């Protein structure tokens, strides 16, 4: 499970893979609310949102998603900004059309950080999303610099127990061409722009 695998959590963080969680359903099936990893993932910056699961089985009102948010609010002491950020993430995770997401989040919703935020629609302060974006960029920079600078001789020992792989030289050449964080951000914006035009 993801909550028992910190390295996998780190990869989810770096790639910002969306995670939809249903604490009430989890509470009934396999994970008590007090042990649910949602607040931990949220604080660490993983791309999480709240969702429902089998409302007829696990919820008690017609507003199943509202139940999830109310329980999360009171169980984990989430503030208004935290809830607004989770709301925003849920729209980004959804399969709504681009126009619908733009209506709820703003016309530049696909851009990372504060650049893609419209506080009049999301109620998420620019400072929160700027912090999230800066923290992710700095973490990616550490990863890229380590990949670019690391001579693989330190990893691939010449001893018989750790033989050097046949493609080690190619790996080392490729690692020297690691993308910078700015390159990654530009590539992300380009892909997002391409997706926008393809849907028009």
Describe what you observe in this structure.
The chain is mainly alpha-helical. It has eleven helices and two strands; from the N terminus they run αβααβαααααααα. Strands 1-2 form a two-stranded parallel ribbon. Residues 152-165 and 171-179 have low confidence and may be disordered.
Provide a short characterization of the protein structure.
Helices cover 58% and strands 3% of the residues.
Give the secondary structure arrangement, pairings included.
Layout: H1 6-15, E1 19-21, H2 23-29, H3 38-44, E2 48-50, H4 55-58, H5 64-75, H6 80-93, H7 98-105, H8 119-122, H9 126-149, H10 168-175, H11 181-198
Parallel strand pairs: 1-2
How many beta-strand runs?
2
User: What is the H/E string?
Assistant: HEHHEHHHHHHHH
User: What is the makeup of the main sheet?
Assistant: 2 strands, parallel
Shape: globular
Side-by-side strand order of the widest sheet? 1-2
Distance between the termini: 39 Å
State the secondary-structure class: mainly alpha
**β-sheet strand percentage:** under 5%
Alpha carbon gyration radius? 21 Å
Estimated helix fraction: 55-70%
Average pLDDT for all residues: 81
Annotation field: number of helices: 11
- Point out poorly predicted stretches: 152-165, 171-179
